[in-house]
Amino acid sequence: MSTGRLLVVSAPSGTGKTSIVKPVLGRLTNLAFSISHTTRQSRPGEEDGRDYHFVSMEKFEAKRLQNDFLEWARVHDNNYGTSRKAVQKQLAAGVDVILDIDVQGAMQLKAAASLPASYIFIAPPSMAELERRLKGRQTENAASLHTRLTNAAGELAQAGQYDYQIINDDLEMAIQTFEAIVIAIRAASGRDMRGEALTWPI
Ligand code: ADP
Ligand code: 5GP
Question: Which of 190, 192, 185, 197 lies closest to 97 in space, CA to CA?
Answer without folding.
Answer: 185
